[in-house]
Amino acid sequence: MGRSSSDRIEKGDAPSARPPRPGISWVWVPLLPFFLFAIAFLLVPSISIVYRSFQGPQGQFTFGNFVELFQRSDLIRAYRNSLSISFITAIAGGVFGFLLVYAVILGGLPRGLRVFLMTFSGVASNFAGVPLAFAFISTLGRVGLLTSLLSSVLGFDLYRSGFSIYNIWGLSLVYMYFQFPLMVLVMAPALDGLRREWREASQILGATGPAYWRYVALPVLLPSILGAMILLFGNSFGAYATAYAFTGSNLSLVTIAISAQIRGDVLYNPGLGNALAFGMVIVMGVTMLGYSYMQRKASRWLR
């Protein structure tokens, strides 16, 4: 005879409950605009640059653009100038920007000064282009305010002494205006992430202040510092509007050379311009990979 349902339950052979069918997840929907933006303004233009860099004047496939890129001295000089300015501003901006943010966050300065600095950094890091170039020309140009004051009050001719704002060092000085604030914004969370327990533990073990920074704080902050410097390098390497408004075509940079090849009336060669841009894509890609690697290293301590 068949067993009753109570008998089956007592025997422990009741049918197992069917797992619920998973529904459609809508968590990814808010990310859809970001992915569409990245595809439209990053992926598609990058693919277009790679494709067009192998095109000749008549649309034929050619390697001539890259051959010309490595043979022309003016294009090599453009890359050298861009890399030099990027290295100068990344190192100087990283060192002095770190000292500035350390003085405000850990140096015991008033809290109101920190609020002012962070607000100013958020504004100044985006202040570039024609307004920034005009501000420095009006201040340190040949007839700028500071130049005229030094000449009339102290009798000191700044430009006769060898100074010029219209060269690599002068443009680097202009870039520092937005490199310093960017370093402050990037490094402030890292300095806030230093735990008080680490300093207290080092003091209990007999470590002095310099020893704490040498063996504890700097090793923890080093990936963040290097990552921020890499970010400053990429930020400077891709700048165009400030350099063009400041020097025009007097200083050869990669971004200015690309504009001359793609939009110029005399040096019109879109294939060569895309080959130059392809080189920039490689440099910026390496920069992004380096920054991501350093951020992963830093996140292990700052969680």
Can you describe this structure?
The chain is mainly alpha-helical. The protein has a single domain, classed as MetI-like (MetI-like fold, Orthogonal Bundle), CATH 1.10.3720.10. The chain has 13 helices and no strands. Helix 3 (64-71) crosses helix 13 and helix 12 runs antiparallel to helix 13 (270-299). It is flat and about 70 Å long. The termini are far apart. The model is unreliable at 8-12 (pLDDT under 50).
| Low-pLDDT segments | 8-12
- The amount of beta strand, in percent, is under 5%
The mean pLDDT is 85
Helix/strand order, N-terminal first: HHHHHHHHHHHHH
What is the C-level CATH assignment?
Mainly Alpha
Fraction of residues in helices?
Answer: over 70%
Instruction: Output the CATH topology.
Output: MetI-like fold
Number of domains: 1
Going by CATH, what is the homologous superfamily? MetI-like
What overall form do the CA principal axes indicate? Answer: flat
- The CATH architecture can be named as Orthogonal Bundle
Q: Kindly name the structural category.
A: mainly alpha
Instruction: Give the tally of β-strands.
Output: 0
